[in-house]
Design a protein that fits this description.
Ubiquitin-like (UB roll); five-stranded mixed sheet; two-stranded antiparallel ribbon; 9 strands; 17% helix; globular
């Protein structure tokens, strides 16, 4: 199982092919997902200290390009835990002073994943 390390000191194993957003939340990491994990809002964004995936979904690419954010961060709702990663969540309930993170994302990547190579 892949090891996920969070810059706050949390380290855990994640089931292979679990969505990163769900792995983080299930491990108790405070991270937002206001759109429910559908690549629409960018509140689930993370930066990588190590292990950034070399592929992304078309939905993530479109969202990042639209905001001129390619290379600045990634969307954890569009990433599968298929290898070891070290990440920093950029938005949380605490940082944004919200009562909830947003609706829980579905188990499978939504919209349906169409993969492309990260540029």
């Amino acid at each position: 199982m892949p090891h996920i390390t969070v810059t706050n000191g949390t380290t855990f194993e994640a089931p292979a092919d679990k969505r990163l957003i769900l792995a983080l939340e299930d491990a108790g990491v405070d991270i937002l997902h206001r759109c429910g994990g559908n690549a629409r809002c960018t509140t689930c964004r993370v930066t990588f200290e190590a292990g950034e995936p070399d592929k992304m979904t078309v939905a993530e690419k479109i969202k990042l390009e639209a905001g001129n954010n390619v290379g600045k961060f990634r969307l954890s709702c569009q990433i599968l835990c298929d290898h070891d990663m070290s990440v920093t969540p950029l938005m949380s309930k605490a940082s944004e002073q919200l009562d909830d993170a947003g609706p829980r994302p579905m188990d499978a990547i939504t919209p349906d994943a169409e993969w492309v190579t990260k540029e």
